[in-house]
Amino acid sequence: APSAEEVVPAQETVAAPAADPEPEPEPEPEAQPEPEPEPEPTYEAPPADPEPEEAAPEEPAEEEEYKVKDIEPSQIHQQPLPNPRPSIEPCAEFNDEVAKKAAKILREAMKGLGTNEKKIINVTNGYSHSQRMVILETFNKEYKRDLIKDLKSELSGKFEKLCVGFWLSVGRYDAEQINEAVDGLGFSTKILNEVICTRTNEQLKDMQEAWWKGKSMIDRIKDETTKGHGNYATLLVSLLEGERQPNGPV
Fold first, then answer.
1. 205-243 burial by CB neighbour count: b if 16+ within 10 A, else e?
2. What is the pLDDT of residues 1-26, one digit of tens each?
3. Is residue 206 a contact partner of residue 172, using CB atoms and an 8 Å limit?
4. What is the largest CA-CA distance in the chain?
5. What is the DSSP letter of 248?
6. pTM
7. E strands along the chain, which residues?
């Protein structure tokens, strides 16, 4: 009889499947060396120029002493110049009768309705300033009127201002201009400069004597120009007080 080893068939041993081999770890990349920083460019300053040698200070030249030149008396004059050429030539044969005739023409030109401006112009332009002053005095005396007031009443606008200016005395004309400059709000530096800064001490005196307002001309100008214009007010007052030196030789 068969033995037990023969009866029992031998069992085949099945081998377990082989496990997949573990993947080998990838090698880490080699670290690259950091690039060396480029050296910063160095700036070499150009060689400094040699300092110039200090020159020895020059001795100041001796200033010549100023000497006032001797001037002949004939070259010394006052302003305005003597015997200036007038803008209106005087009447060659002027006397009291001529003055009365001129005054009569003026009265007729302004008497009644309307005004004959042509007659006023002819008389105004026909005589010099000194002769007009005689005619004005004759008019006021003969007709017991004020020629200036009549002209202002009969004329108007710029023609009135021009015509009246011809019949005013020199001092009164300047005084009228100053009054216009300081009348109302503010003041006109243009007129003040034109009148005060261009007149002689004698003319400034005549101007103040002809002033007819309440306060003196100096006080009126002080009131207008002192506030905020102290130096300007001081200048004008100094001139009006006659502190400017008279005109010397030219």
1. ebbbebbeeeeebeebbbebbeeeeeebbebbbebbeee
2. 555 455 555 555 555 555 566 666 66
3. no
4. 203
5. -
6. 0.61
7. none
